[in-house]
Design goal:
single chain, mainly alpha, 76% helix
């Protein structure tokens, strides 16, 4: 699910979808740094 939210956040042209994905990530992790750490740990981003 996290990968899907991240992909929506960076690729979606629909502002509402991007905003929702961002809220979901922040709700799950609490900070942008925590999101980035998770994405790196699971090799979703480098």
């Amino acid at each position: 699910m996290v990968k899907t939210w991240y992909e929506l956040l960076i690729q979606e042209n629909d502002e509402a979808a991007r905003e929702h994905a961002g809220k979901m990530l922040m709700g799950a992790f609490g900070s942008q740094q925590a999101v980035a750490d998770y994405l790196r740990k699971h090799k979703i981003i480098s």
